[in-house]
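subagent[fold] <- orchestrator: predict structure for attached chain, return tokens only, no commentary.
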Amino acid sequence: MLSQSTLNTRHNNKCTIKRGLAPEWIEVNCRSVSASEAKELLGYTAYSDGMWLEGANFQGQFKPDKPWESRDEKTGKKSRPKYRTPLEEYDAMLPKHPENKRYWEDLEALKLLCYIINGIPCLVITEGFFKAICGCTSQYAIGIYR
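subagent[fold] -> orchestrator:
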């Protein structure tokens, strides 16, 4: 069974001190996991402990402490990805709000947090879950598509 632990001190400091992210948002969206827990979440072997990032819609990514080398199946090139994605089907990651459990479900309230372009509310989509968290703490509804 997967633990529901919080972030360890090192991971917490990386998020809140180094990145300057709001602790209450980090607490509900991120947790430290062992390599064996990461393997269960990813559906394939993880070679490092790290952080599990999970949004309101249960989409997740793993940020290993020590990225490991892998080969891109399409190009054949080797790389050490900073983030790993589960094998299963995936979609946008929407950060959990620390207080409002219906943040992404209450569409009328969400429209008030969106950018307005030509009178139309628009969500901001960004690369990177930490950037999405940063945007949401700035009172804009931001998700990522990975």
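orchestrator: received. Logging for downstream: The chain has five helices and ten strands. The first strand starts at residue 30 and ends at 33.
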